[in-house]
Amino acid sequence: MLGVLLLLLLLMPLPATATAQLCGSGGSYVANGTYESNLAALASTLPANASSSPQLFAAATAGQSPDAVHALALCRGDFANDTACRDCVAASFQHAQRTCPSDKAATVYYEYDNDQRPGCVLGFSGDDGFLNPAANLTGNGTLFQAWNTGNISGVASVIAAGVHELLTATSEDAAANVTRRYATVVMDSAPTLYSLAQCTPDLSAGDCQACLQRLIGMVNATTSVRLGGRIFVLRCNVRFETFMFFDHPMRRISPSSNAPAPPTGKSTLWFLSPSIRRCTNTIERLQIHLLVVVPILI
Ligand SMILES: *[C@@H]1O[C@H](CO)[C@@H](O)[C@H](O)[C@H]1NC(C)=O
Ligand SMILES: *[C@@H]1O[C@H](CO)[C@@H](O)[C@H](O)[C@H]1NC(C)=O
Ligand SMILES: *[C@@H]1O[C@H](CO)[C@@H](O)[C@H](O)[C@H]1NC(C)=O
Ligand SMILES: *[C@@H]1O[C@H](CO)[C@@H](O)[C@H](O)[C@H]1NC(C)=O
Ligand SMILES: *[C@@H]1O[C@H](CO)[C@@H](O)[C@H](O)[C@H]1NC(C)=O
Ligand SMILES: *[C@@H]1O[C@H](CO)[C@@H](O)[C@H](O)[C@H]1NC(C)=O
Ligand SMILES: *[C@@H]1O[C@H](CO)[C@@H](O)[C@H](O)[C@H]1NC(C)=O
Ligand SMILES: *[C@@H]1O[C@H](CO)[C@@H](O)[C@H](O)[C@H]1NC(C)=O
Questions:
Q1: 2-131+273-297 topology per CATH
Q2: Which ligand has the shortest distance to the CA of 131?
Q3: CA nearest to 277, candidates 246, 238, 243, 229
Q4: Which of 28, 29, 32, 102 has most ligand 1 atoms within 8 Å of CB, for mutation?
Q5: DSSP character for 36?
Q6: Degrees, nearest 5: CA angle 243-168-172
Q7: Is this prediction's pTM over 0.85?
Q8: Residue 285's pLDDT band (boundaries 50, 70, 90)?
Q9: Which one of 96, 198, 255, 268 has the minimum C-beta count within 10 Å?
Q10: 45 Cα: distance to centroid of ligand 2 (angstroms)
Q11: Shortest-distance atom of ligand 5 to CA 140
Q12: Are 2-131+273-297 and 147-265 the same fold in CATH?
């Protein structure tokens, strides 16, 4: 009975799911204190500021030391609907308060289950250097990875080379995009691969490229043949899948000579509906406190 219920829950179209939150290590704030009210001030204005920004990005500080709170929010670069951006950032604040209660610092990666509905990134902290764009580009304090547990079938070395080539091209495009530091690329390989890369727009092209290259460097022999994966840090993220999960590809590339041979038939997953695919797209827990995969129905 419970099994049936769980199956039904998993098969239902879901409104939204938080992919992950990382509760910060900066300690707790006291209830009803100044830090809490500064955080509440950010939660009430940052969502609208991010969604009304041409870059879908906002960073702000509320209050003064020692109770100053710094926050930044970034929506995925293909948002056409700024209501969705505002709602995503607002939901991320609420999610942080629910899942990291009273924590002075938290990072939330909020993603919708519908593959084509964009998500957002929110981070806040009492650390004075938090909003410095070059700060902590090399730390793992906000690192989160989620990997499909299935593998792409084929010659592993060829697939790995294709995935690296695709991610590298995507990161170069994202770093070169001065408007949003965002790019999507499709690779005509077998299977067709789709990828996305984004940095916060306050990063220079060089810092964006370095941030993304570090993430791509974490894609190892095991993970580079997975059916999909995402790696996030606060200021940049990359994702690849065997299905199109964004609005439209900004560039189409072909694998270089050493990459996959002509199609021999697409992955079965290709034909599954998004909700079924979601079930198979099991996310592995890595470095996170809690992973919310069960929908909140009330
Ligand atoms: C905080 O304020 C709320 C509402 O004003 C009150 O119910 C609660 O008891 C207060 N908590 C503390 C710890 O002061
Ligand atoms: C939001 O934007 C307004 C108007 O530019 C600005 O006064 C305010 O400080 C911003 N607040 C946040 C939290 O970004
Ligand atoms: C940069 O990203 C924006 C937003 O996604 C997109 O509209 C624009 O075409 C991109 N610019 C370049 C040069 O790729
Ligand atoms: C914009 O997004 C909101 C939800 O965030 C949705 O209710 C609304 O229908 C969307 N509007 C358009 C024009 O897509
Ligand atoms: C860098 O991150 C560490 C924890 O990950 C934090 O303690 C430190 O304050 C951060 N530095 C800056 C400049 O943000
Ligand atoms: C960050 O994590 C990656 C991947 O797990 C690891 O290779 C790297 O050494 C870590 N860096 C630091 C500074 O801990
Ligand atoms: C590959 O990366 C994953 C995710 O960071 C990690 O769990 C795994 O141990 C790595 N495998 C190898 C062989 O390094
Ligand atoms: C995926 O490939 C790895 C080797 O890279 C193997 O250990 C693992 O069992 C494979 N997983 C599946 C589901 O086939």
A1: Killer Toxin P4; Chain A (3.30.430)
A2: 5
A3: 243
A4: 32
A5: H
A6: 110
A7: no
A8: very low
A9: 268
A10: 6
A11: 5
A12: yes
